[in-house]
Amino acid sequence: MKMKKITAFLMTAVLTMGLAGCGGETAPAAATEQEPATEQTESSAEAESSAEAEPSGGSVELTVTTTFAGEDSNAQNYKDAVAAWESKTGNTVSDTSATSDETFKTRIITDFETGSEPDVLFFFNGADANDFVNAGKVVSIDDIRAEYPDFASNMNDELIAASPADGKKYAVPVNGYWEAMFVNTEVLDAAGVEMPGADYTWDQFLSDCQDIKDAGYAPIAAALGNIPHYWWEFAIFNQQTPDNHLDIPGSSDDATGKQWVAGLEDIRELYQRGYFPDNTLSATDDETFAMFTDGKAAFLLDGSWKVGGIVGSCQSDPDDPSTLDADKLSHFDVTYFSGKGNRKTTDLIGGLSMGYYITTKAWEDPDKREAAVSFVSHMTSDEVVPIFAQHTASALKNAPTVDESQFNALQIKAMDMMSGVTSLTGAVQDLFNGDCRVSTFDGMPDIVAGNVSAADAVQEGVDTYQDSLE
């Protein structure tokens, strides 16, 4: 039986900041992915036992809000983990989880403002949490450890993101994300193009796109008028390095601003060459994703959450893994986005963008304090985290060995790809969020069509960003 060691995606890599995947535009998996069979070690069992604080006396009800809902591939895993904790402790969870989107984020902020926040919250650990962090509505990991020294002791502290609001760490992570390029190899074969590898360059990508177009296929599946996020991020990253990708320009003509402009101009070049679908400015993301899974487009730039959607498209019943067409799935692969300049092809966007917070309201309740610590310790234990992380990222110190036979072919390809990653860098668009992005996100059709200059669009966004700081 073949076994594989799942790492935390380069545990020694320095993640400048754990950020939400590309603007909070969550694209949950269309099908629940198979759970890996974990091999529990004595040390991991001891870690969980020592970290969890058992409530003393009586049943406690915790209100918990997460994003494990709807079509999120971990929704059922979350329900199972909660049920196990309830059975173990005798406590109960009042679940108010919802699918992550901008409405969800607004609801969370409003709940904190009105005193209706949950006891435990699974939420973004970047700028989206600044309001309730600044208001003192959540408890830092250090403060929790002052009373419970083993809290999150199974985590690599270097991979736990600090809040941009005050530099303290609040959210204990479970699973992270990566962004990379999915490939329909059936289209590549038809066009006589080889599968890209770790040394794939921008010039090679342009050449391959032309060959694919000449063969009668769309080289790139993307809806630039709907979800340009991933192309925006990587096109800019291609002008930079992991060391400066999270810089925000002061203007469109400073060093960083010029890099942003150059990135947008690369997207415009791709559009003008006809490498996107003919309807890329009017199509929805779902429509262009269907082009990719139906064998009409070769490349799809997206996040780790898209693995589930691709697998689901290869099942006769998207909700039933037993209906998987393994032969169809074998035509899908995932690789690194073509590198340009000083960015290595193997430098990816990714990180540990979310985690569990314990709110001050729960912490100041003697009964709920212990229950909240116990709950978060259980949900972030060595046994539970791998079930959620699967082929993505975690911050565990001791990544467990898993049975590779429990994963589908695309998940295994993702693990193999990630074993060659040289760095993971957060998404800069999550710092440059909200109205700041309108001119370059909503305005992408005008930019690529040449109606608005990339420099003017970047400057408009920068001006909005500067206004938001005042």
Largest sheet: 6 strands, mixed
The rough form would be described as: globular
CATH third-level topology of the largest domain: D-Maltodextrin-Binding Protein, domain 2
State the share of residues found in helices, binned by percent: 25-40%
Number of helices: 18
User: Please, what is the average pLDDT?
Assistant: 87
Radius of gyration: 22 Å
Beta-strand content:
5-15%
Q: List the domain count as a whole number.
A: 2
Describe this structure in words.
The chain is of the alpha/beta class and 470 residues long. The chain has two domains: 3-176 and 352-425, D-Maltodextrin-Binding Protein, domain 2 (3-Layer(aba) Sandwich), CATH 3.40.190; 178-348 and 432-468, Periplasmic binding protein-like II (D-Maltodextrin-Binding Protein, domain 2, 3-Layer(aba) Sandwich), CATH 3.40.190.10. Helix content is 36%, strand content 12%. It has 18 helices and 13 strands. Helix 6 crosses helix 7 and helix 9 packs across helix 18. The chain is globular, with a radius of gyration of 22 Å. Residues 1-52 have low confidence and may be disordered.
Output the keywords.
470 residues, alpha/beta, D-Maltodextrin-Binding Protein, domain 2, 2 domains, six-stranded mixed beta sheet, 13 strands, 36% helix, disordered N terminus
Question: What is the strand and helix layout of this fold?
Answer:
Blueprint: E1 3-5, H1 42-51, E2 61-65, H2 75-89, E3 92-95, H3 102-113, E4 120-124, H4 130-134, H5 141-147, E5 172-173, E6 177-184, H6 185-191, H7 202-214, E7 218-220, H8 229-237, H9 255-272, H10 285-293, E8 297-303, H11 306-313, H12 326-329, E9 332-335, E10 347-351, E11 354-358, H13 360-363, H14 366-379, H15 385-389, E12 401-403, H16 409-418, E13 423-425, H17 444-449, H18 454-468
Parallel strand pairs: 2-3, 2-4, 7-8, 10-13
Antiparallel strand pairs: 1-12, 4-11, 5-11, 6-8, 6-9, 6-10
Helix pairs in contact: 6-7, 8-9, 9-18
